[in-house]
Amino acid sequence: MFDLSGKVAIVTGGNGGIGLGMARGLAGAGAAIVIAARNAEKSRAAVRDLEARGASASAVETDVTDEKSVAAMVEAAIARCGRLDILVNNAGTNIRRPAHELGTADWHKVLDTNLTSAFLCSKAVHPALKRNGGGKIINIGSMMSIFGASFAPAYAASKAGIVQFTKSIACAWARDNIQANAVLPGWIDTDLTRRARDEVPGLNENVLRRTPTGRWGAIDDMAGIAVFLASPASDFITGAAIPVDGGYSVQG
Fold first, then answer.
1. H or E element that contains 153
2. pTM, whole model, 2 decimals?
3. How do residues 50-67 score in pLDDT, each as one tens digit?
4. 248 given a catalytic annotation
5. What CATH class does 8-246 carry?
């Protein structure tokens, strides 16, 4: 039920953080992985990490905010692996400033990277998934899909948008046997959140106090949900937004 042998997955931003954790999970279940990201050196390191675990992995340099680059990404994945079954829209960024201090260019950078990229990549893979008779799309939201934060207006807007975009494509593409779901990570220990701890006073203490498990998440905590949502085990689940947060979102 959780076997992904013979399946091919593109993971955007899969060369580190949550994306790499998910790529490890998918690879461990048997999927071939295509890492799509801008930093070629970091992507090569991620491929080595996956190959050391016995996975089939490759990387394609991609700007997920550029429609032509995204089209080339899909073409490269199919040319190398022969098919495409799974897309993880994980690429993301954040600029931490309150709305009255946030420039328009910064707003667009965050929205384009986090939300428009998911639209472009999902639209680009749809024909290939439809030809295969179905497939899986996993979009990465956030606790900011649920909660507000004074320091993240653009990020929160983009991640709330991810949830509604996911519901839209889940409805539109169900007839093509494509399931689309969103994952809402809690506070996961990544390069991005380490910068947040430096930039937001008291963040570490607040996260530990509010999270029932009493710790930050690790990137490998994201592996199981990736396998579940990419596998036949979730064939009757679509349009969902699932927190993976150590209980953070259930605390009052």
1. helix 153-173
2. 0.96
3. 999 999 999 999 999 999
4. no
5. alpha beta
